[in-house]
Amino acid sequence: MFLTDKFGRRINDLRISITDRCNYRCVYCRSGTGGPQFPEMPIADYLRMARVFVGLGITKVRLTGGEPLLRRGLAEMVRELGGLRTVEGQPLDIAITTNGHLLAEMAQPLADAGLTRVTVSMDAVDAGEFARITRVPNGYERVLAGIRAAQEAGLSPVKINCVLMRGFNDDQITAFGRFAREEGVAVRFIEFMPLEEDRVWSPEIVVTLDEIVRRMAEFMPLREIDHARSETARRYVFDDGVGEIGIIAPVSHPFCGHCSRIRVTSDGKIRTCLFSVREHDLAGLMGQGASDEDMVGFIVHAVEHKEERHHIGEPGFVPASRTMVHIGG
Q: Are 261 and 11 in contact (CB under 8 A)?
């Protein structure tokens, strides 16, 4: 059985948030005064969910947060996930999205446990700007060390996610271009979405894909390269072939028609879209003694009701029922 929604999209990419705790307070994400709002489940419960999902055709599992590296037992969880096989009998693609602050110490153990890929959220490549955004002094040096440790552990190419906001950090565009070339990482710019706690989003703050390409050309022109239809990022390389840039453009170039993702929050709720206003309580079902077969039926029903698309910027747009840090990236 493969998970397919009513629009014919195959769902094969599962994102599991294992905490909404974070050791950063990035100003575009958190208000700086709030903390975790939702409980964490035992690692064994996430693993059981993952096993059921993989039996339904999931081929990729990404662990997110909050900051997933804060969870004890993370390497053991990755090792358990590494023992799963897809319905086609292939190894599972296992990735983590992290702010990188603890990555220098954990990159090698995670790679040894079977981690496939790592993405680091990083919104400036200037130490002062980085501290202003994250509200963490001396974080830049730690994250840079984590990126290099991940590369040494064989988790290459490391991907860097940068959320751009006009008048806030869009002066970092060309600096990230240099960073991609010098550090051998794939930088991915993400258009700012209305998912932050302070609810400051407006269309005017969004730095669009077309503008990013145009402004990067002031440093060096880009040429687009092929990407899979279900990939969220439009991918580019510089004209000389050195350095990759990706742009995730859910606002200006929505990719909902090819969405292959489903999410589980840290407290075990299924979200079929980042902008869902409804959740499906899989943890609650498990707490009632549900069998794996019960879980399969519940998941299939949730996926059948996956939203066709988001409605960012449209009249009557209703914000997601949770902000990003409480959903999981």
A: yes
Task: Respond yes or no on whether the N-terminal peptide bond of residue 157 is cis (omega within 30° of 0).
Answer: yes
Q: Would you list the DSSP string of 108-143?
A: HHHHHHT--EEEEE---SSHHHHHHHHS-TTHHHHH
Architecture of domain 13-327: Alpha-Beta Barrel (3.20)
pLDDT level of residue 30 (50, 70, 90 thresholds): low
Domain ranges of the chain: 13-327
Pairing assessment for the beta strands 93-98 and 117-121 based on DSSP bridges? parallel
Exposed, middle or buried by CB within 10 Å (0-12, 13-18, 19+), for 58? buried
Cβ atoms of 144 and 160 within 8 Å: the answer is: no
Mean pLDDT over the full length of the chain: 91
Strand order in the sheet with 222-225: 222-225, 233-238, 244-248, 186-191, 159-164, 117-121, 93-98, 60-64, 13-17, 261-264, 269-271, 280-281
Res. 74: pLDDT tops 80: yes
pLDDT(227) > 80: no
- Supply the pLDDT for residue 224: 95
